[in-house]
Amino acid sequence: MTFVQLIDCRTSRFDEMNRLMDRWVEQTKGKRTATHDIIGKDRSDPAHFIEIVEFASYEEAMRNSNLPETDRIFQEMVALCDREPTFTDLDVVRDEQLNVLAARAFFEAMGRMEPGRIGDHLTRDYVDHDPSYPRPVQGVDGVREQYEGWRAAFDFTFRIDDQMAQGDQVCTRWTWVAHHKGEFLGIPATDQDVSMRGMTWQRFREGRICESHWIYDRAGLLEQLGVLGQ
Hints:
This is Ester cyclase. By secondary structure, this protein is α+β, with helices and mostly antiparallel strands.
């Protein structure tokens, strides 16, 4: 279970505090177990800061606390604070990144939804970057046409292997599993089961996808269809 520690402190010497944290990051390379660190400043009180440190588990947090570098930096941090910091320990019981959920819903719907529904997931000014296209596809109508072509050629589903998020961006690593039922790039239906792995980077705006970049093993797909390697 993910574990989060909140450190609440007051200081008028934040620049020194910031440099202190940089030193801790440098000194604990290869040792620290913290996975994410955020420091927020109170908008109504410029001397009030809250640091949020994330760990994979409580046990990992304890390993981190026992590092000599952590204890040394903590003592220096206390000296920079106007009063001793307070700590709140939290076991994370719910963690949902909403753009990740939106990306997952998109891939789970692909292959199953009718072409007319693809706009449910996209902004009106959506841009699709695919290495197999001569230029980016602009707008929902263009993407619907591309989707119709894939759907006419294959019965397919996406299996999500991994997802990572940063800001308004989500990267999804996926496996595509399909049955070749119709013409694809001039290749008549082979009635073969095929698969392909790839990754898609997507940017979100107001809960919908506004841009995608696709990377996938198209050559491997063509080889499975008997076009390459003969």
